[in-house]
Amino acid sequence: MNLRQLRYFVAIAEIRSFRKAAERLHIAQPALTRHMHDLEREIGAPLFTRFSRGVVLTNLGTQVFIDVARLLGEFDQFEEKFIREKSYRHQQIYVAFHDAVAQNPALLESIAIFKTSFPNARLDLLELGEQDQLDALLEGRIDICWAYDICGEFRQLSSLDSIVIQRDDLVMITSLNHPLARASVVTAAQLADEPFIVHTSKRAPRVGFNFYVERCREVGIRLDKAQEADSIDMLISLVANGVGVSLVAENIRNDLRSRVAIVKIPELELSFDLTILWSKDNASDLLCRFLDIIRSTTS
C-alpha cells in the first residue's frame, strides 16, 4: 500500500468510474485496475461493487474512503507547509522600528510567532528613527517599519500601505518625587517654568516634529529650548532623575509607570498613531505572511 494507490482509490471513488479516473490520472485503465486489485488484496476485502457502467463503494470502501481522504488531506497540508518553509530558507525580511516601540507587546508577539512559524527564514531587526525608517522604506532597504505617526504624515504617501496598530495620547512624565507627580491632570499654565526634555529632533520627520512643537506652543508649552535625548531610554532616565519633564506617548514602555509619574494635560489634544508601513510595490510572500501575523495579533 502506498500513497499513489490511495490517491488512485480516492479518484475512482469520487468519479465512480475506472475509465474516467484513468483519464483524469493520465494512467492506462488496465494499470489502474491492477493497482486497485492489489489494494483490495492487501486490505482483504473488495472496496468497490463493479457494474458495467461504473462502480460504487462497498460499506468497507466507504469507510476506507473517509479515512483515506482525511489522511491525504493532512499529508497534502504537511507537504505544502514543508515546501513553503523550504522555499523560505534563503529568504529574509528587514523590520525597522523606533526605540520607543521596542517593547511594544504587538511587535514582540509578532516577531515570536513569525520565528516559530518560519524557522528557516531570516528576520533582521533594525532600530531607526522615524525619518531614517521612512527613507529606508522608500529606498527599498527595509521591508516594513513600526513608527509613531503624529499627524498622518507617513500615511499620506501614495507609495506606502499602512495599518494603525494603536493610538496613544500624549502625556507628561515627571520624576516620582516631582511636585506634580501626584496630580492626575495639569494645565499647560502649570508647566510654564518646567524644563522639558524631548526625543532628539534629528531622528524625527521634520513635518511631524514641527507639528508637535507648534501644537504645544499653541497651548503655552515651549519646547524650543528643551534638552534633547538621543534615545527613549536616556529620556526616561533623565526624567526619572529629576532633570526635567517630558511629553511622550502614554503606552511607549511597559515599565514606564514604575519609573516615572504619568500626568495628563487635557487641553493638549495630541496623540500618536503607532503605524505599520510597507511599500505597495513589495511583492515578498514572506512580508505577506508577517503582515498576516501582525493582523492576527492586533485584531
From TrEMBL:
The HTH lysR-type domain, residue ranges: 1-58
Q: Is Zinc found in the keyword set?
A: no
Task: Drop me one GO molecular function for this one.
Answer: DNA-binding transcription factor activity
Q: Name one GO cellular component term.
A: protein-DNA complex
Q: Which domain of life is it from?
A: Bacteria
Keyword list (alphabetical) reads:
DNA-binding, Transcription, Transcription regulation
Matches recorded under PROSITE patterns: HTH_LYSR (PS50931)
Q: Which residues form the signal peptide?
A: none
Which family does the UniProt entry place this protein in? Belongs to the LysR transcriptional regulatory family.
Name assigned to this protein: HTH lysR-type domain-containing protein
Can you name the source organism? Steroidobacter denitrificans
